[in-house]
Amino acid sequence: MQTGPREIVTPFRPIPLEVPEGMKPNEFFNSTENLNDLVHNNGLLQNPENLLLYRKALGHSNEFDASIIYNTSKCILDPLGRPVRRTQVPERVKHVWNRMNQIIIEYMVEQYPDPEQALLLAGEASLDATWSLTSPGVPSIRMLHNHFIVFDMEQLRQAKAADSANPNLTDGGQHSLFQAHMHDVYHQFFKTSLDLRILRLLDHDEARVALTGYPQGLPSWEISGGVESLKEVRFWQEYDAILEGFLDFYRTFFSQVSTRNAPILADLYFPEAVTNKLLFNNEFLKAAKMVRDRCITDAKYANSIRWQPAFKQLIYRNEAGKLIVTISQNSIGNAITELLGVVVKRQPDAAGYEAHEPALIAKLLEVRERLIAADLGEGIATPHWPAA
After folding, report:
1. Less crowded by CB within 10 Å, the N or C end of the chain?
2. 186 and 306 both lie in a single domain
3. What is the pLDDT of residues 196-209, one digit of tens each?
4. What is the pTM of this model?
5. From CA 252, how far away is CA 249, in angstroms rounded?
6. What is the overall mean pLDDT for the chain?
């Protein structure tokens, strides 16, 4: 079977939401009014930490698809002031968030034990405030949220090949800025700067989903011990360390793009590694000069730069059964699934969606029961399901 990215069609039931006149849809989706609708029509569980588990009405997959959002819509009204990455979340909230992640991922592995039959992924993308709300590609809800998705591998095998030139598929591969110009620097920084015991750095071939050939060129780590390691606090500390290392690399690079020979940033997680591995590295600084010079003469290119850290970080399982962590520069704003070579074409088709809905909802309610039993929240009643 030919290796390459796949494009699948996922039916959805159109959402009967009216966007107020004079507002763009992605402006409305960030409003408290829309979040109220999300809770009342698709909410599954919420807790005092403002974490909301909900059914994805416009989902990536009708096999299993849910999200947890840090719903700050009523306590932070400024959409640009809301937390957009794990490092901005209060520790008590992150503690609960990690436990919710662990239980849901464990459930996914239990329900879909055969890696040849199901592609599993869980992760989040930054929704940074450097894009204006009206820019193309801005996520529809500007609050930190993550995804839990299962794809049927047979559906992917039968799906048509995606266009490999699709810009959304190049974000984490050889075409991205980091991969094209700083691949070795980027990987060495991760390899030498982080104290990882549970996460084991993988070669690219070991990390790929064999069917699609993705991810391409990204640093990836196997979770030693598999799903059981997600029950250890140490794992989540290492998961955070990968993000912190990425943030240091990204911020340091664009500080050098912005200002030649800029001083080291004051609030880094790994200042010694930045000093030794980046600010004295000729390839790193040569790439910064290249981008800086182009920004000065190319207004369109300069406007496309995301000056603040933008990333996708996820846990996924490939056909070899490895649970893997990877992280990507999110320079384009593509869907998290495309990091694994899966392009989702959503198609309005109420009947097609409703054929899958009972089985999907049954799984979501079952995983909700586990979260409630672990004291991670209370169930929400909607027109589609009871509170418990």
Report:
1. N
2. yes
3. 999 999 999 999 99
4. 0.93
5. 5
6. 90
